[in-house]
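Subgroup meeting minutes
Present: P.N., E.W., G.H.
Scribe: E.W.

1. P.N. recapped why we're keeping a running log of single-chain structure predictions: easier to compare across weeks, and new members can see raw inputs and outputs side by side.
2. G.H. added today's entry (218 aa).
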Amino acid sequence: MRSSNQLARGRRLPTRQAGVAVSIMTALVVACGGSKAPSPSATVAPTPVVTPDPHLKEPVTADRIFIALGAAKLGITANNADSDTGNPGVVKLINAEIANWPLRITEYTSSAVLRRSLGWKPGQSPGGDEAPYNIVGENILIQYGPIGARAPSAPDKDRQQLAAQIVAVLDPLLWPLTQRSVVVVPSRTAEPTAASAPPASAKPGKSPKPTAKPTAKP
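Output recorded in log:
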């Protein structure tokens, strides 16, 4: 009896019956949720691109601005440079030309010294002894055009376009810019005006105290 039981246990199913049994088992596994959906592959987040700030920090050198204008291929040529102008507030003056018009780059010791020396009101038209285009950014003064005793007049369209290209080069480097130009060239920021400044009497951070209303008598 034992030998017959062992033979029965070791007896294999016919091939057709074995195939049917495998199919039934597979169907049962699928029906019971035995198969798992493939897990989605992990997506790698793109590395953020950091845009460098082109803005130059004070003190800016006249040489740095000359190199930037040269890299813009505006046809700038240098005539001479002077480090001893007789003005203690001036570090260096570069005399150059663009399209046969003089261009001067003056480096001051600081922006405060520059603005104190000029005594400007930005946005006004230039007067005598000023160039048609006078542009200030940080401690640098750029003057484009001839300087004479009379107030300059508006140049032709070609030179106006060159002035716009000069401002486009200076804007990201010396932003924000202020101008005294015969035709003001739009830059990235609006010119500061006296109206935008807060009144001297205003004290920020303090709000008026509420006035208590008298309580009505019953």
